[in-house]
Design goal:
The protein is α/β, with parallel strands linked by helices. About 40% of the residues lie in helices and about 15% in strands. The protein has an eight-stranded mixed β-sheet, with helices on both faces. Keywords: Hydrolase.
């Protein structure tokens, strides 16, 4: 066979492979409402090797770079945490407003990518519309900094908020903790740790939270490799954070929020997730367990919503605008003066 024939065969095979992948993705899109279909759904989004991880770390923090006019954004370095390392945060405060409540916000990124600044749009919106002080944590990322680095950073930021409540002008009894995706999972774990340490938290806002490392051990649901956060990425993220692949038994404290057996006494929660999100089952189960434990938890399920669709389409797709508004309304109600 000539070299030309070999090259022609390789090109043909590659073309067929691409065509098959596109065909598979088109079939999977049938589960996604037209208003939620976005070009990103055609991209192979996996963060399972150093090259894709490096690219994602450069691109993801740019996703939400714009903050609202009239909101002052400041970078602060907080005192050292339990391992004697300082914590970097961004604070958001509406100009001319004295905050009376606060939100500790934790960004997403599968525990391996992302930065506080990617949440500028959302955090400045909360500060503007609720008049709250928002503190967004630039926690350390895995795999360079495995468990409990990110957890320690976020819990240290919560302790700082309480210790400096008077100077910051906030009511220590009106502090909420929230996050999206990996940040939502960390937020739930921080709330559990705060409960055990006697640190008050008014409310937890969990947007499609990454709660259970054992999801990486289960059979992959249909089409789950299509919708933004994939099983491969999930396994990589959890393996990076845990310091080894997930396993059925892991008794390290607060390693994954869903592993906690006793949920009694935790603060009220709002959980929002789509029905084709990889985290759907673990989020619905956690909401059920919270309610069974006597913890008020509102669960919002969105039909045809994949992971992160609201971040892509807020203000463009009515359902995603409503999803974000519902989260904001729940936070507003929770932080209202008693």
């Amino acid at each position: 066979m000539t070299l030309l024939a070999v090259l022609a065969g390789l090109i043909a095979a590659a073309t067929l492979g691409v065509a098959a992948a596109i065909s598979t993705r088109r079939r999977a899109l049938a589960a996604v409402p037209r208003e939620l279909r976005h070009p990103v759904l055609f991209l192979p989004l996996n963060f399972g090797n150093p090259v894709t991880l490096a690219i994602a770390r450069r691109v993801v923090p740019l996703a939400g770079a714009a903050s609202r006019p009239g909101v002052r954004v400041e970078q602060r370095t907080l005192p050292a945490t339990t391992d004697d390392l300082p914590v970097e945060v961004l604070t958001y405060q509406a100009s001319g407003q004295a905050p009376r409540a606060a939100l500790l916000w934790i960004h997403g990124g599968g525990l391996v990518v992302g930065a506080a600044r990617q949440e500028n749009t959302w955090c400045s919106r909360v500060a503007d519309e609720l008049g709250a002080l928002v503190v967004s944590v630039d926690y350390r990322l895995a795999p360079e900094n495995p468990y409990p680095a990110a957890l320690d950073d976020c819990f240290g930021a919560l302790r700082w908020l309480h210790a400096n409540a008077a100077a910051l002008g906030i009511d220590p009894d009106r502090i909420a903790v929230g996050g999206e995706s990996a940040g939502g999972g960390l937020a739930a774990a921080v709330v559990q740790r705060a409960h055990d340490a006697g640190v008050p938290v008014r409310f937890q806002l969990l947007i499609y939270p990454m709660l259970d490392d054992r999801t990486a051990l289960r059979a992959d649901p249909p089409n789950s490799t299509i919708y933004t956060w994939t099983p491969d990425s999930n396994r990589f993220g959890w393996t990076s954070y845990l310091g080894r692949p997930p396993q059925d038994l892991d008794d390290r404290p607060y390693i994954a929020a869903a592993r906690r057996r006793n949920l009694d006494g935790l603060p009220p929660a709002w959980i929002g997730v789509g029905d084709i999100d990889l985290f759907h089952d673990e989020d619905v189960d956690y909401a059920r367990r919270l309610n069974e434990a006597g913890v008020a938890c509102e669960l919002r399920l969105e039909s045809g919503m994949y992971h992160g669709a609201d971040a892509l389409l807020d203000g463009k797709a009515p359902s995603m605008t409503a999803f974000r508004a519902a989260a904001l309304d729940a936070l507003r109600t929770a932080l209202a003066k008693p």
